[in-house]
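My current task is to audit a protein record that another person submitted. What it holds is a sequence and that sequence's fold in token form. Thanks in advance; the entry in question is below.
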Amino acid sequence: MAVSDNVICIDDRSSDDSAYVAKKLGAEVFSSEEVVNYGWPELTIRRNLLEIGRQYGGTHFICLDADEIISTNFVNQLSKVESLKKGQKIEMQWLALWKTFKRYKNDSSIWSNNFKDFIFRDDGKADFLEINMHTPRTPTAGWDSIKLDKDEGNILHLQFCNWDAFQIKQCWYRCSELIESKGSNVEIINKKYSITLDRNKFKNNKLRDIYELSTTAKVKDDWIRGVEFFDQDQFYIQSYWRFDQIKDWFEKYSPNYFEKLDIWHIQEIKDLLDE
């Protein structure tokens, strides 16, 4: 059963076959080079996706990043999407698949019980807030929203499935935000991304495994029925550009600039000091 009439993607300088695969599956694919050619393009890309969607005559939008999928049980809730009034949103639980496709984070951390608005009915004039990093999926704060229980439909977030790739990504965020804040906010940044250190709490692997089982829950079969997951190692390939940019930042600012960030548990980052 189709969830959408059209799928529109912006390929942000991918180095694999993502654009080809998306086109083969029927998506309209645009290059980020067509819409932005400077800086971190997240806000600009979201605005352009909305504008392109409007040009296609779209009124109801589901907004996902490349490392997110909508659970398959959501098809039973399409009537709620169709009944949205202009300026209404649907919030869904954002479930972080944790080091595997089979379990998700389920504790008191920021990656649990986290609701985001992914779906909205356009009013034709809404715009995104001026937030350049971690830009919200939908435009305009303050709209009325409907909240779905995770068993009605949820968003599965894949970035944590390959833990090593995740570490590089979070290191990139830390470094980027330190540069953005001109060297301040170290404590705030470290606290924000402290969950990336949880594997290092336990020297005993058995204790670590018990901890991870107790803070995660099993992904239900009807959430992923028919989904063909891919090789988790592909996530690491997608982190190469972030690692290369971290290397460039080290050369530009020096490693000492990033000394107080919690990034030195990552072996690849430690190795940069020896180059």
Remarks:
- The CA atoms of residues 100 and 206 lie 17 Å apart.
- The chain is about 30% helix and 15% strand.
